[in-house]
Amino acid sequence: MKKGIIATFSALALPLLCGNALAASSAEMSNHHWAVDAIEQLAQDGFIEDLDENFGKGKVSRQDMAQIVAKFADKNVQGPSKPLADRLVVEFADELHQMGINKKNTDKVLFNNKFQIRTQDQWQADKGNSIRNDAHYATLQLNPYVLFDKNWSVNLRAEANFNFDTGNFVSPGNYLTDGQRVIPSTGIQHAYLQYDDNNVQLMGGMIPYFSKIDEGMMYDYHLYGGQVTVSNDVNVTLTAGKTNRFDAVNDLAKVYANDSTVKYGKYYGLEIYNNRHDRFTWGVAYHHWSDKNKLYEECGATAINIYEAAFGYRFDKNFRIHGAVAWTNSPNSEHEPGEAPDQVNHDSKRAYNIELDYKGAKLSQPGSFGLFIAYRQLGHYAVIAPTYDIIGHGMRGMEIGGDYVFTPNLLGSVRYFHGQEMPDETGPGELLENARGFLCELKYFF
Length: 446
Hints:
Layout: H1 14-26, E1 28-29, H2 34-44, E2 60-61, H3 62-70, H4 82-91, H5 93-98, E3 109-111, E4 114-126, E5 129-142, E6 144-147, E7 152-163, E8 168-169, H6 175-178, E9 187-197, E10 200-210, E11 220-230, E12 235-243, H7 252-256, E13 265-273, E14 280-290, H8 294-299, E15 303-314, E16 319-328, E17 333-334, E18 342-343, E19 350-359, E20 369-378, E21 395-407, E22 410-421, E23 433-445
Antiparallel strand pairs: 1-2, 3-6, 4-5, 4-23, 5-7, 6-7, 7-8, 7-9, 9-10, 10-11, 11-12, 12-13, 13-14, 14-15, 15-16, 16-19, 17-18, 19-20, 20-21, 21-22, 22-23
């Protein structure tokens, strides 16, 4: 809860109170405090201009931090940066009050919403035939969150997806006719409690998990469980829970359809990495997914252990390169009902990504844009729930794309993929098949 102001004090207590307030305002904060990282992220997103290039390299006073926050406290910050901006305003509410900037209590209940229109086309060869999945749909995403005080928040995400081709909202019940294998189902996506204090963050519930060191190559989905992040010179994130996403085991379309054959597995993950805003970034990770029934039926293993390393380097304010490699030693074979086991293809147990970025679209700056070119390989068993929209697990190839900000909070994106689908086995008739993907979308944040 927000710090209360006691209405009556004795005259003798006033000097002490004022002295404490001034001392608190001038108190220094560690550069590992979550607020320092949030300021750096907002500057990168274009909401804070002319941030000192040495910011974050040493301690900073709360008063100096509040002066930075004051620059955007009354701006209409939208998009992924909005929760960070709102939490910063709550964190430095006392300092902002001293500067004459006041926020109402009703501001503690906040919204960060998105409306999106997307056209998506995916094609791949299949032993002389072709498989094509086209989708034209709209998404309304509501993200209400409640800030109890500067430490605690409750977060919710709900999505409604409307298929333009069929004229229906997509749900698990009608997914076979309306989902077209790529449209997510309507429903609750996240519901979790979050705690932030200095350099520690805790989350529990139906939490979002975006693997940090590889920018989502390994995992970008929710899971039921908890996560602990401790920030220091070296950051550590521990994640544990259960999830129905392992795309090599549970078909994604069946996950969206809530099919009875889809099984939940246990997930444990450890990520170790440095500050994501450093010029040179690095990270290592370990991921474990297990289900003794479904996984054993698929490939004769009871668990998959994946090891990972990642890097990134920013040349200047325009160019950045980053990548990751992941590998697993199991499984050795796959089991098809009524057939002898086939050896698993080596490439199915390897994943990597190398991407070059140019500039970056900033929602607050109309006319800003970003371009990228990447080569990705997503081995079936080497990734769990990758973030890429038009490259599924088991595929490899080149992806190019760009983003452009038309007006504040209106973002357009284009992606194109050209590559192959890799065979997951080495048996007769297992071939590399051509694959293509195209995506065009328009997002408005409000």
